[in-house]
Amino acid sequence: MSFNCERLLIKTQEKKLLDISFVFDKSYALIGQSGSGKSLTLKALLGMLPSNLKGDLKFKSKYKLRRGESICMVPQNPFTALSPLTKINQQFFIDKDLAKEYISLVGLEEEIMQRFPSQLSGGQLQRVIIAMALSIKPKLLLLDEPTTALDKDSKKSILELIKKLQVRDGFDMLFVTHDILSVENLCQKIGIIKDGKIIEEGKMSEVLNNPQNDYTKKLINSGFEKREFRI
Known about the structure:
By secondary structure, the protein is of the alpha/beta class. It has helices spanning 38-46, 96-105, 122-134, 152-169, 180-183, 204-209, 214-222, and strands at residues 3-11, 16-24, 27-31, 54-61, 71-74, 140-144, 172-176, 189-194, 197-203. Strand 1 (3-11) and strand 2 (16-24) form a beta hairpin.
């Protein structure tokens, strides 16, 4: 066991918004439609819940959750994740030589560091974000639909990069996405979340090939073609 979320409870004064638990070793995909609780899960793990929500997180792992140290996130939209008026090299908060090392590690040229975000493609920006996240050497990497804004070729290369770097650095990974093809060959375990509850989970291949819950069957049959699918 690398990460055991014994219970994650989030609520307002009126109702529960999220009440889940999950255990995984190395990689876990959390799949659900808009409003199911995916984003709340990531915010809770990062300690970034809105002030109007009450959260209770109980977990066991080999590491403590400290944002910017043991845990970090690759956000959904690389175009809004960086300051548009600041060069890339000034947005790394680590030693310059180490920043260059990670830029090279994600397959980018060093001269990228002297550009502004607006001068980079979506795929390049996402690689920069991944370099920034991994440069702190996290134990747990959160990915919030990191390929949504990318074209087919960029998406494929980013997924291959994430898989390669996980093998290299050994971090645990929680991957939130609507796109089952993004995680089918990347994550070992999958959880289907609906209305703040995980309604089905198991090994990736078992859930995809033999889903037990009707809602899961509908999601799989839908092909996950739309970003925010409705059933």
